[in-house]
Amino acid sequence: MSYKNFPMVPRVIFGRGSFNQLSEIISPKRLNVNAPFIFLVDDVFKGNAWLTSRIPLAYDDKVIYISAKEEPKTSQVDSLVEDIILTSRQGTSGIIGIGGGTLLDLAKAVAIMLTNEGEAKDYQGWDLVKNPAIYHVGIPTISGTGAEVSRTTVLTGPEMKLGINSDFTPFDQVILDPELTKGVPKNQWFYTGMDCYIHCIESLTGSYLNSFSQSYGDISLQLCKEIFLGDMSETEAQDKLMMASWHGGMSIAYSQVGVAHAMSYGLSYLLGIKHGIGNCIVFDHLEEFYPEGVALFKTMKKKHHIELPKGICANLDYSEFDVMINISLSLEPLWENALGKNWKKTITREKLKHLYQKM
Amino acid sequence: MSYKNFPMVPRVIFGRGSFNQLSEIISPKRLNVNAPFIFLVDDVFKGNAWLTSRIPLAYDDKVIYISAKEEPKTSQVDSLVEDIILTSRQGTSGIIGIGGGTLLDLAKAVAIMLTNEGEAKDYQGWDLVKNPAIYHVGIPTISGTGAEVSRTTVLTGPEMKLGINSDFTPFDQVILDPELTKGVPKNQWFYTGMDCYIHCIESLTGSYLNSFSQSYGDISLQLCKEIFLGDMSETEAQDKLMMASWHGGMSIAYSQVGVAHAMSYGLSYLLGIKHGIGNCIVFDHLEEFYPEGVALFKTMKKKHHIELPKGICANLDYSEFDVMINISLSLEPLWENALGKNWKKTITREKLKHLYQKM
Fold this sequence. Notes:
The structure is a homodimer of 359-residue chains.
Chain A: E1 5-7, E2 11-14, H1 22-26, E3 37-42, H2 49-52, E4 62-66, H3 74-87, E5 94-99, H4 101-113, E6 125-126, E7 136-140, E8 154-156, E9 161-165, E10 173-176, H5 186-204, H6 211-229, H7 234-250, H8 259-271, H9 275-283, H10 291-303, H11 318-330, H12 332-339, H13 343-346, H14 349-357
Parallel strand pairs in A: 2-10, 3-4, 3-5, 5-7, 6-9, 7-10
Antiparallel strand pairs in A: 8-9
């Protein structure tokens, strides 16, 4: 038996207002005055001086605003990399991602593709990256995805939605400043928080679990329960959800996600449904696989008055179901983690179609 | 306000038998065939082929067996460094520490002193180390100290017992193989496990605490309760105590230890009492500061039939108490964490003497 030698984020700073330390953190990493830092920033912050005025720009540093309305794409990574190479002739000092899972995943993928030949789609899978990425920093502004700590960057490619899983993917530095999450709209807060909750349920009930992953999953799940079912101040909830996301991401180290993620990847690929809400839509129908987890999810949904979209698969035709089912079934490690080595006995194409039809 | 940018161990592997992967992990780190890896190994393993036959020696690699009967000393670090430099004329590829807190702290200190001038005692304190350490790997064989994940290495010097706290202190790689802890004697298992439990109590009740450190402390404390008060298989207890130690060490990131550690440093310095048992002896008398924590400690002690030594300070004279009190009072961050900025109002020399006299 061989165990994974897991890469952890080597530097982390936590605290309300720690974003102000970005300049002192990245300055020593500047290669030369002609090698800029590139800041990839969620475009919801465009014009929001409270945040943008604190981005420490110097020399040729550049901010690129990116919409997180759609899931990140391999083609988007390729075109960002091309732009950056063209405008930074003496190299790039680093990539700093500021935003949610979409921006963080783009930052990780761009940092990898700046030092690896070919196209981003060539690296979707496990351990295909050859060269270390350039210095990259992750600064989450919404909590739940675990993208700030994971060794993957999930991208939609021409053929599949799949992560670039590699030892070079994790950030070199993460800044956890819970204050940055204060403007997140309620629905998005819930969907993204539930991404973390669902991670935990899938990880903790999975067959891959060991004591390492369990300990991270347990604390993350406990925090999710306190945040979404308990009673605490807004700032405390922001602090704790940021930690829940962090530990939830770590809990995947020796585990995997499961049925909800496998199915929601299909929804994202075909219908462009964002990851957080997609997971919620799917998880709501998975009592059969996660009875306790789904019951608690419904309680949380009710407490926070969340109405999930319905009938999103109502008008799909036969071939469209096929596309979703193909994407979903291709994620074998997720199914194996959820249901064991004989998962194919339980999960048939008909079964998946039946589940999708309810959504 | 400025927050600490915390260095985390960048690589960790967890699993029963993961020690077998040591060779594949360190091989790529060899600088050249004349630059050996030096293995610092607890001498309880001398002649224990189950472990030693799996130490992957090649070229000029060397095993140095070290007794952990005494706390590690700065002079011991200096003499190890001198020996290693004399016998490794083309540099050293790395230091691998295999053992408990003593061996892990020695490995960290030696790795630092191989690239920093002067003597180890010059670096006791906070952030005095100038140059990155050489590659160093930590492999705990007993769980509880948190030395495998911390940014300190606690050494007894000519003038004080104090850690080399620096960003270069943490291991580059940690191997968490719970199977390596199977031969630990019962008493030592308890004392070292209680080091972790006491960390958690001191961290969680301290004034420095934030949500980052709290989340690690909570899971570690929860695991300690399950292990020392619950009922589980021996292998599960080994796995979980290794994780409790890991998270307990992390919980100090934005926190500190407290009264028990401040006072047990005095006992260690004067009487050479080992850290784990020293903490237990002190903590047993700290109801005043940690009422719930001490009550639970007494329950654990009873459940595991542990008898602590008594009267260890009975025959000390005035000047000896003074030495212990001086050492203890010098650890200001620990007292401030435990009792707040005005700790000097509560903690007088008389008060400390009175407490020591009970031990």
